[in-house]
Each structure stands twice: as C-alpha cells, then as structure tokens.
Amino acid sequence: MEKPTTITNFSDLTARIIRACCSTSAAHGFRSLRLIFNGLDKESNGLIDPVDFKYALRSIGCEINEDELHSLMKFFDETRSGKISVNDMLHAMRSNSLNDRR
After folding, report:
1. Residue 100 reports pLDDT greater than 50
2. Whether pTM exceeds 0.90
C-alpha cells in the first residue's frame, strides 16, 4: 500500500527550489535548471524521472528528502507515468515565483 504523503509547506518547498536556482545563477536561474533537466532527459521527450529530478535539484544546492520528492512527483506527474514534464514544472514554479514578487 502506498504511503500517503502531503507537504503542508508546498509553497515553501518550491520557494526553496526557486531560491537555489537564483543563487546558482541569478541571471539565468530557471534557464540553468532547464539546462540541467534537459541534460538528464535521456529520451529527449521533456520528461524526467524522480532520481534525475532529485539529482538536478542537488546540483543547484537544493536538498530534498524522500517525502518531499514523492510529494513533488505526485504533484507534477499529472499523467501518473512516473515522470514529470520539465516544461510544466518550470512553468508552475515560475508562475509561483512571479506571484510572490508581485
């Protein structure tokens, strides 16, 4: 049976990822993350698996635990394929980031 997990601080988690993007390369925060994701996209289909997702976040200095990873995957994996769309995830995070700044 799948362990139900929820992140009560989902916006805090995405904010952590956004801060890590910006601190890595202020001028190219999301672009840098997209380049990392594209490099990990073995099939060039715009989808990455959980292990690659965690590795990409770690490479920009954002550590997440297994519960956070599971919840992020569950949130961003709309098709339940076990992979997330890089475009959809970055769009959602970018939208959240813009809303916070406005």
Report:
1. no
2. no
Task: Say how far apart CA 21 and CA 18 lie, in whole Å.
Answer: 5
Paired residues of 85 in beta bridges: 47
Which amino acid is it at 89?
M
DSSP 60: T
Q: Count CB neighbours of 15 within 10 A.
A: 15
Which structural domains are found in the chain, ordered by start?
27-101 (1.10.238.10)
Around 67, how many Cα atoms within 13 Å sit in the side-chain half-sphere? 9
- DSSP-H helix ranges across 1-102: 10-24, 29-40, 50-59, 66-76, 86-101
Q: Would you tell me the crossing angle of helices 10-24 and 29-40 to the nearest 10 degrees?
A: 100
From the number of C-beta atoms within 10 Å of its C-beta (0-12, 13-18, 19+), residue 44 rates as exposed
